[in-house]
Design goal:
Blueprint lengths: L4 E7 L3 E8 L4 E8 L3 E4 L2 E4 L1 H20 L6 E8 L5 E3 L9 E2 L8 H11 L1 H8 L8 H11 L1 H6 L2 E3 L1 H10 L3 E3 H6 L13 H4 L10 E3 L4 E4 L2 H7 L6 E3 L2 E2 H8 L7 E6 L3 E7 L9 E4 L6 E7 L3 H11 L1 H8 L5 H5 L14 E3 L17 E3 L7 H24 L7 E5 L6 H11 L3 E4 L5 H12 L8 H4 L5 E5 L3 H32 L1
Parallel strand pairs: 1-6, 6-14, 10-11, 15-21
Antiparallel strand pairs: 1-2, 2-3, 4-5, 5-8, 7-9, 12-13, 15-16, 16-18, 17-18, 19-20, 22-23
Helix pairs in contact: 1-6, 2-4, 10-16, 11-12, 11-14, 14-15, 14-18, 15-18
């Protein structure tokens, strides 16, 4: 029988990762490469789409083929995902006209959010989104380009997100999956996925939008040019793909109500499958990738990016040791953290180092270390940062539970799950079991599974069947004593933002 392999490649905020799986769902090999996110102005975060997105894809694709010794013709389909939703204007030849404006961490379009809210009215905005406009929405980002960079806007053939750009480079077709198209580009499309001329009129032309398809639909086939750049065989099917969080959720089996994924990447993203759309202006809701399934989701801007900030600014010795052949710097940073009691000696961090998405929807929010004393060390500060992510996750879980939404299972995925103590801290804070999947590569594994389903390969035809390839790894059981101790710190965490928000905004205005 002819061998069959499926490739999945995910592009994230600070790195890209890829896997090759076989027809049994086993990972044959992996490869990853890093890239940099630029911050050219306060609240502005960008990627070079050609270098960071397409360049990474080509590097990883060739590496996977070389590492596995696989013939390109044996790779039966390619899946892809990328951080989302971003805003990238391209010309008729799919050449970027500027650097990509990134997802919710980029807060440049606050004036446009206010302009759109005034134009349509708060009630209409809530009908569309179930909440006020936020920095994760693409419509204000497009309007920002129209207002601030009219020469770029005039040349724009398509406004793409990360997955759309990579799919276009592979196939020359402009597509976006329904999950991203109807949620992040809302309300520029009708519910059937066709552009809405009326809502597009003040923002962009309908023909500047990609075609909406299902995430595991075939977007097209690898072109001759793309084959030369990626090492793939010309004619290989490529699925539409989706954003990294959606693919990550598929990799953990979020294909039914009650299943939840928490993505520990540069940021935190949480997706919980629901039967129906649930409106709460502090959270987000969408129709999910799986047909007939909705979701409620949430996002914390700083997670892995916060640990990286600590590494780069407070643990130079750990980095020097790693460069000298010692252990990974992040491992060194954890030494002694387990000896510090829950609450970090009365130190609480607000992780709003890049503004915040849910539940406060405030791009001008600022990070806080509250309770510092002369007795605190950098390790107290670092543990407090790790705990702050747990407090944020718990804060948003409580909002979801207030809607009587059942949560049957929580899977944690992403690079952060390698830190076992961090996972235990989060489990203790939320007071619930937290599991990691046996295969922890996350989104790229979800991409490969969806690629197989896209061509209806036997055993992979439906989303429900994909769960046969998802096995549990380690489960973290909450320590009840620690959970009780964390409750008092959670209460302080929840109260800190409301009493400091005005001061944060004053400080932001002073800095400008």
């Amino acid at each position: 029988m002819e061998k069959a392999y499926f490739m999945g490649i995910d592009t994230g905020t600070n790195s890209s990762k890829g896997v090759l799986i076989d027809e049994s769902g086993s990972v044959i090999c992996e490869h990853a490469t890093d890239h940099e996110m630029t911050n050219p102005a306060p609240g502005h975060y960008e990627h070079d789409a050609v270098k960071d997105w397409w360049g990474d894809f080509c590097i990883i694709s060739k590496a996977l083929i070389k590492k596995s010794g696989t013939k390109p013709s044996d790779i039966k389909a390619v899946g892809l995902s990328a951080l989302g939703a971003d805003c990238l204007p391209v010309d008729e030849n799919c050449r970027p006209l500027r650097k990509a404006i990134l997802y919710g961490i980029d807060a440049r379009a606050t004036d446009e959010m206010a302009q759109l809210t005034e134009m349509y009215g708060e009630e209409q905005i809530r009908k569309w989104y179930g909440r006020p406009l936020c920095s994760s929405d693409v419509m204000p980002k497009i309007l920002w380009i129209k207002n601030k960079e009219p020469e770029v806007y005039a040349k724009t053939h398509k406004f793409l997100t990360g997955s759309s750009f990579i799919a276009a480079k592979l196939t020359e077709n402009y597509v976006v999956d329904r999950f991203l198209g109807l949620a992040s580009f809302n309300p520029l499309y009708f519910n059937d996925g066709t552009p809405n001329p009326e809502t597009c009129a003040p923002i962009c032309r309908p023909d500047q939008l990609a075609q909406v398809r299902e995430a595991n639909d075939i977007a097209g086939y690898v072109t001759g040019t793309a084959a030369r750049e990626t090492g793939l065989a010309a004619g290989t099917p490529v699925i539409v793909g989706t954003d990294d969080s959606g693919a990550e959720a598929i990799s953990t089996g979020v294909v039914a109500p009650g299943k939840m994924m928490i993505q520990f990447g540069s940021s935190i993203y949480m997706i919980l499958g629901t039967k129906n759309l649930v409106d709460d202006e502090r959270l987000w809701r969408e129709e999910f990738i799986v047909p007939g399934l909705c979701d409620i989701s949430a996002g914390t801007n700083a997670a892995g990016s916060l640990t990286k900030w600590y590494r780069d600014n407070f643990f130079a010795d750990a980095m020097d040791s790693e460069k000298a052949g010692g252990p990974d710097a992040y491992q060194t940073m954890m030494l002694g953290i387990d000896e510090i009691a829950p609450g970090s000696g009365g130190l609480i961090t607000l992780p709003y180092f890049a503004g915040e998405r849910t539940p406060i929807n405030d791009p001008k929010a600022k990070g806080i270390l509250f309770g510092l004393t002369l007795g605190h060390t950098r390790r107290h500060m670092y543990r407090s940062a790790l705990e702050s992510i747990g407090y944020s996750v718990n804060q948003q879980l409580m909002l979801m539970l207030n809607h009587n939404i059942p949560i049957d299972q929580i899977f944690a995925v992403g690079g952060g799950v390698k830190n076992e103590l961090w996972m235990q801290i989060v489990a203790d804070i939320i007071g619930r079991e937290l599991s990691t999947p046996a295969i922890t590569v996350g989104a790229s594994f979800g991409d490969a599974l969806m690629a197989a389903s896209g061509i209806k390969y036997p055993g992979f035809e439906s989303f429900a069947e994909l769960t046969n390839f998802i096995k549990p790894g380690k489960t973290y059981i909450p320590n009840i004593e620690n959970h009780e101790a964390y409750k008092k710190y959670q209460a302080i965490y929840d109260a800190l933002y409301p009493v400091t928000a005005d001061l944060m905004h004053q400080l932001d205005n002073t800095c400008l």
